[in-house]
Specification:
The protein has 286 residues and is an alpha/beta fold.
Length: 286
């Protein structure tokens, strides 16, 4: 998805929230630097995620912290594990094995993406409940599950994580895929950017021999990735990609493999590009 005329305003809106992490005397300067990036790169940025990545780079330089959101991420991960996972797990015995369980877990994974740490003031559990109750606006899970069902042990299903607080819910889906005999490779950020999950955080949450650190600051940017990571993704039978930054970047790539995008449509530009309704979870197979 290419940059839309509405994207700079959204990037700046996030920056104004992030400025609260800084002392009052540095906030205006930080916003000025973000405006400068928007002005200088608005014509050349391949996707909105590229501009957002620049915003996060500048935030790190101002805070002097490698991970400005580390504490917030830890708190939200624990909240999700304590309050949300029991609710999702409790529904699984009521669903038939196979597609219905996959769809339920995919819906929850998409819906938990509806909470935006850098923007939302709402309670994340309340926000999740609101989004998941709407159901999928675009639902390609049946075709995706058919692809998954036909994958043998030698086939790779790659899962690209997004925000850290979503990981406990995402991992229920990963675990189910492994339980039905599928090989799942897990991708998280190699270093912290915004509130995205890092591979070190992933290792604390889950055990798998197949974990990889993405060098892309946001989404998937092949020019910043290792050859190993790109080869794995291109050779996957299916990529499951979480969140908006992955949607923005991957839709501009020809990976020559199928991609299932799981996200909530949180902005007008992405909703229009995807062909869905604002505020709804979607499962889009490309």
């Amino acid at each position: 998805m290419k940059l839309d005329y509405r994207c700079p305003a959204c990037i700046l809106k996030v920056a104004t929230r992030e400025a609260s992490l800084l002392s009052r005397g540095r906030r205006l300067s930080f916003i000025g630097d973000i405006v400068g990036i928007l002005h200088s790169q608005i014509e050349s940025a391949p996707t909105p995620a590229h501009l957002a990545a620049e915003r996060e780079r500048i935030l790190k330089s101002y805070t002097g912290l490698e991970d400005p959101f580390a504490e917030r991420k830890r708190d939200l991960i624990e909240l999700m594990r304590r309050e949300l996972l029991p609710l999702i797990r409790g529904e699984l015995p009521n669903l038939p094995e196979g597609y219905q369980r996959f769809r339920w877990l995919a819906l929850n994974s998409s819906s938990v993406n509806g909470y935006e740490v850098s923007l939302s003031r709402a309670n994340p559990i309340e926000r999740f409940t609101e989004v998941v109750s709407r159901g999928f606006d675009i639902d390609d899970t049946e075709e995706a599950f058919d692809l998954i069902s036909k994958a043998d042990k030698g086939d790779i299903i790659s899962f690209i994580f997004d925000n850290a607080h979503e990981a406990p819910v995402d991992l229920l889906l990963v675990q189910y895929l492994e339980q039905i005999g599928k090989t799942v490779y897990l991708f998280a950020k190699s270093t912290p950017t915004a509130d995205d999950l890092t591979v070190d955080e992933l290792r604390l949450l889950y055990k798998s021999p197949y974990m990889f650190g993405l060098r892309s600051p946001l989404g998937l940017m092949p020019d910043r990735e290792t050859e190993v990571n790109m080869n794995i993704l291109r050779s996957s039978r299916l990529i499951i990609a979480k969140g908006m930054a992955n949607y923005e970047t991957i839709t501009e790539l020809n990976l020559k493999t199928r991609v299932l995008h799981l996200l909530t449509l949180k902005c007008e530009a992405v909703a229009e590009h995807a062909g869905g309704r604002l505020g709804y979870p979607v499962a889009i197979l490309r």
